[in-house]
UniProtKB/TrEMBL annotation:
<keyword id="KW-1133">Transmembrane helix</keyword>
<protein>
    <submittedName>
        <fullName>DUF3429 family protein</fullName>
    </submittedName>
</protein>
<feature type="transmembrane region" description="Helical">
    <location>
        <begin position="92"/>
        <end position="114"/>
    </location>
</feature>
<feature type="transmembrane region" description="Helical">
    <location>
        <begin position="32"/>
        <end position="53"/>
    </location>
</feature>
<keyword id="KW-0472">Membrane</keyword>
<dbReference type="Pfam" id="PF11911">
    <property type="entry name" value="DUF3429"/>
</dbReference>
<feature type="transmembrane region" description="Helical">
    <location>
        <begin position="65"/>
        <end position="86"/>
    </location>
</feature>
<feature type="transmembrane region" description="Helical">
    <location>
        <begin position="7"/>
        <end position="26"/>
    </location>
</feature>
<dbReference type="InterPro" id="IPR021836">
    <property type="entry name" value="DUF3429"/>
</dbReference>
<keyword id="KW-0812">Transmembrane</keyword>
<feature type="transmembrane region" description="Helical">
    <location>
        <begin position="126"/>
        <end position="148"/>
    </location>
</feature>
């Protein structure tokens, strides 16, 4: 896979804001004089929207058909879900985080099920990498939901 080292570094580094905000919430701290809940919520929305956008690019590479149309629709559903999370804000943070958690899980499942068409058969190491990232992100969401409740 091209740029595997960069992809791995960026993927794992992308977990830092999730866990920094979760840690701050559990410790009742602020981050950069901002609410860690707001930091977590906005970062999650950005990442969910970004990952949804990757599906748009993959759909454009595929021939017209059910899978291509499904990826286009899912990419938009994920982006709109991220926007909904932001609209719900900190006031309704738990429903917003549950929306994100479900979105991340669906995205990971779609990648696993359609790897040969969507990811160009990147192989099991990349899929394990994505599953690890998704699991850690979903766990961070669960921690933040616990901290909010």
């Amino acid at each position: 896979m091209k740029n595997a080292a960069i992809i791995n570094c960026l993927g794992y580094a992308g977990l830092i804001p999730f866990w920094a905000a979760a840690w701050a919430m559990l410790g009742d701290r602020t981050l950069f004089q901002l609410s860690p809940a707001l930091i977590f919520l906005t970062y999650s929305a950005i990442i969910l929207s970004f990952l949804g956008g990757t599906l748009w690019g993959k759909a454009r590479e595929l021939a017209d058909g059910f899978l291509s149309a499904g990826l286009l629709l899912l990419s938009n559903v994920l982006a709109l879900s991220a926007w909904l999370m932001l609209l719900l804000g900190e006031t309704f943070m738990v429903p917003g985080l549950l929306i994100a958690l479900i979105g991340y899980a669906i995205l990971c499942a779609v990648e696993w099920v359609s790897t040969s068409q969507v990811l160009g058969g990147v192989g099991e190491p990349y899929l394990r990498f994505r599953l690890t990232l998704t699991s850690v992100v979903c766990l961070a969401h669960a921690v933040v939901i616990y901290a909010v409740l």
